[in-house]
Each structure stands twice: as structure tokens, then as C-alpha cells.
Amino acid sequence: MKLITAVIKPHRLDEVKDALQAFGVHGLTLTEASGYGRQRGHTEVYRGAEYTVDLVPKIRIEVLVEDADAEELMDIVVKAARTGKIGDGKVWAVPVDDAVRVRTGERGPDAL
Amino acid sequence: MPPGILTLAADKVTLSPANTGFMLICSALVMIMTPGLAFFYGGMVRVKSVLNMLMMSFISLGIVTILWVLYGFGLAFGTDSGGFIGWNGNFAGLSGIGLTELWGTSTIPVYVFAVFQLMFAVITPALISGALADRVKFTAWALFIALWVTIVYFPVAHWVWGEGGWLFELKVIDFAGGTAVHINAGAAALGVLLVVGKRIGFKKDPMRPHSLPLVMLGAGLLWFGWFGFNAGSWLGNDDGIGAVAFVNTQVATAAAMLGWLAYEKLRHGSFTTLGAASGAVAGLVAITPACGAVSPLGAIAVGAIAGVLCGMAVNLKYKFGYDDSLDVIGVHLVGGVVGSLLIGLFATGGVQSKAKGLFYGGGFEQLGRQAVGVVCVLLYSLVVSYVLAKAIDLVMGFRVGEDEEVAGIDQAAHAETAYDFAGAGGGTVGRRGPALGEAQTKKVEA
Asked: What total of structural domains would you count in chain B?
């Protein structure tokens, strides 16, 4: 199994969610996050005083998938989240040893 | 303000129910400016001291109201003595005034005039507080207000508006408070600042406004209340001058907002909310002395000039290194000076006063008078405010301790915080907290 984590722009959330559902992903976890990448944050101006705000709002989506689906799902997320502008985010996958469905006790891929 | 004399003006002047009603409404409008100012300032400070900022304005409603009734009205508007101060025993405690006794040659009762002027006295020291955000002791501030209105505001109001006041006699035009209110408060802010010093972290830590919607709400309330401030200052509208003041107030404020925003767009690249609110207030300040003396076109000029100049002035604090936290000097002192001096250029001679400005063929005479008013009030307020603040600092300390300042004054001075960020359930989500009421019960038992 793999855990796919995507940090994306908040306004692309609906597109990513729809794309995951269309692929057949049953569930996901969503967190409001903040951070910055290469572009850093943005500048705000108050009566001429400039403040650099490093951390900008992001959405973090986590999905557990089977190994075979991981590659394709990452592509789907990237396609749905992309605007072409700076700050679009990142997607990565890490191996997961095991998973348990809390209600039934099913383990591994059955728990997904 | 029209001239006021203390004897009953019996000759044909009678109480006007229309003007009396109008002036009571105007008084209420001026009252709302102080809470408006509280929100205007409150939104601009950080979360940890917003309540203190609100309280610094609100407390003026308490302290100044009582002092005004006890002796303030008498000092400001009693019988003149030497051009510098007034007194009238009947005004002490507002105890010797007849219900229908009229104010001077006006058509409104003395009581109405007294309460209208009270609202001016309330907001003026509150204006100063913006320069001192986040760092002064509430008790020291309360004491400062009481002393400052007594030694600075009441006399200056007498100079400018009192029959026999020396600036009044000099024919300095201040329709609704450019010198007595705004220059006075702005100069006082500078005086106190020199004693109190900068906030910890000034120019290093981000000190962004915590709520621009509050700032906009406050600016909106100020704009609304300012119609009472300006249009009411003719004490009635029998001759249409109050209406001119009303129109000029609206026009100049609009022009100033646009002027500030244009400057900001050119200089910093954005039309900001804070810029719109600040520009509007700068315009209100600048038109205050001039709104009875200029035409609506003149008011556009006054507003636009004030908007741009005040927008430029707020950067001075970074250049000179003084921490005028919310730009009381940049907006109120500079705006007041600009408006007062522009009367010397734009006065038409056909409205409040026969005096004509430079652009209307009046030469430099009125400009010179205005400059005398500006400089004298500025210097008096600056010096006396500095001395007062220094005295308070020596006796009890004007500033809060470093730890309180860093943690925020709200909790230390008021035992409250403005916002509950603990989320749903008041911070007990995911863990079992004490049952509601348990803490209070324990306290009672102890």
C-alpha cells in the first residue's frame, strides 16, 4: 500500500476531489495547512509598511491506495491540481506497512 | 461655531424646536464617533491588546463626561478672563441653567449646547490613544485624560470657540475643531510619545492590523457621526450654513479617500482597505475646520490634498523612528494643519465668514491668522502634554512592564481577552474538562 499526500492550492480542492472520486477512491483525509515552497509567501502593505507573510494557506489531502494504483493516482492529482502558476503544490507517495479498518478489524488492502 | 455670549439674548431670539431637535440628534451623532474611533483603532492593533485599545477610547466617555459637567463647560465656555480661560459658576455641575435658557444668540438651549460640546471634549483625548497602542498603563492613561482635558482641551476650546477667547477674537476660523480637536490631539500624541517611547519590536516584529473589517466599521461610524460634528457646529440651520457644512463634509471625505488610494496605488501598488478608511478619516479631519468656509469644489481640493499628504505623512514615523502606532500624527495632526491652512487659500468669503482666502482675492491675511492658530495650539498642546506625561511617568510610570507588553495588555489590565480561539466546546474537545459552573462554585466556596 501507499500513502499519497498532496499539498495543493485551496481553490483546486473540488477538482482534485472529483478526479479522485471518478477514479474510484473511496475515502480521503483533508487538512487545512499552511506553508511555503520556492515562491515563499506574499507581501502585504499596511499604510506603506510592507510585511512579508511566509506561510500561505494550503490544503493537504491524504489517500491510502494499493501499490498498483499509486502511480496513476499521483498523475490524476497533479493534473487536477495544476494551474501552471507558482505555488501549485506537491504530491508524494510513501510506502505503508499496514492499515486497519476500525469498525471491522480488516487489515491491509481489505481495509481500504 | 457662531459667537456665544453668556447673557440671555432676549432680542427676538426664541427657542427653535427644529434647531433644538436637530442639535440633540447631532450630539448623539458626535457621541457615536467615540465608539467608532474605538473600533477604527481597535481593528488596527494586534489581537492581544484590542480590548485595551477599545477601552482607551471608551474610558473617555466616562471621565470627560463627569469633568465636563463639574467644571469643563464652565472653563471652556464661561465668561472670558484674559482671552485664555473662562468661568461661570452657574455652569459648575450644570446647576444654574434654566431649561429654556438659550445659548448666546443661538436658538438652542444652553443644555443642548453643553451636551453637544461635551461630545467634542470626549472624543479629543480618545484620539490621542492611537499613538500609544499596546504599551501604556490603563490607570496612567485615565489620569492623563483627566489632567489633559483640564489643562489643555478646556482652555484651547475656549481660545478657539469661547466668546473672548484670543484665537476667536483673532478671527481664526475653526468651524468644528481642526485646531481645537485634531491639531490639539495630534500634537499631544507627539508630546506623550516622546515620553512613552516605542513598542517593543517596533520596526522588527510584524504589527499588522488584526481586523480590517473592524477598521472599516469604525471608519464608517466616524464618517456617519462626523455629520453631527460638522453640520451641527453652526448650532442650527436657519441660514443654510449647516447644510453647506454637511455637503462639504461628504465631498471632502470622498475626495480624500480617492486621493489616498491613488497615492497608495502609485507608491505601493495596491488599493488597500486600510488606505480607504484612513483616507476617509484624513478628509474628515481636514474639512472639519474648513467646512463652513469653502465651496464644495474647494472641499474637493481640501480633501484630495489632505488625502495625499496624510498618506505620505504616515511613513514619516519610520523615517524619524518614533512609534506613532496608529498614525495619530500622520492623520490628525497633519490633516488638521492642512485643513486649517487651506482655509487661508480656499475661503470664499460668502459662507461662514466674510474672510476670503488667497485664491478668492483675500490676500495672505486669513492664511496668516490660520497659521497663528495652528502654531500656537500645536506648541501649547505639545509642550504641556509632554510635561504632563513626564510627570505621570515619574509618579507612577506610564508604561506597562515588559512582560505585560509582550503578552498583551488585555489580560493584564482588563482580565479579559477579545476572542476565544479554543474552537467549538470552548477548548474541551478531546478531553474532559470541568463541568460548567464548577470553577465558579469553587471560587465561591473558597
From this structure: 1
